[in-house]
Amino acid sequence: MTEAGRRSRAWRFLGIRAVTAGDGCAVVEMPTTDDMTNHQGTVHGGFISLLADSAMGRAMASVLPPGTRQFSFDLKLSFVNFVRPGERLRATGRVLHRGRRTGVAECRVEGEDARLVATATASFSVYLPADE
Questions:
Q1: Residues 93/25, Cβ–Cβ less than 8 Å
Q2: The pTM is what?
Q3: Residue 64 located in a structural domain
């Protein structure tokens, strides 16, 4: 299946794309638009949070056996800089811990100029395939 076929509906809607994924690390990118702005005219933090969560989830998936599912149950995000609409964001997620039932990941979100926009951590529940 192509990358476009594996992307969630939310990823397709927002234009998120995977740049790399493997060995506990994943990089995803998202363009920003005027439709993503808050009342101050900058990109709403919820979109930045979604991108960070996506990068960490993709990183976690890269270290799990085929068929295993995971979802974040705890997410902490610290905003460092604002983002102007039109800027492409890049999120790099890394697995810090992968256990049998849980995992922990971290993320760095950057603007086009490699300016730090946000940092994040998340805890994940891991569901093993039914045959294990």
A1: yes
A2: 0.92
A3: yes
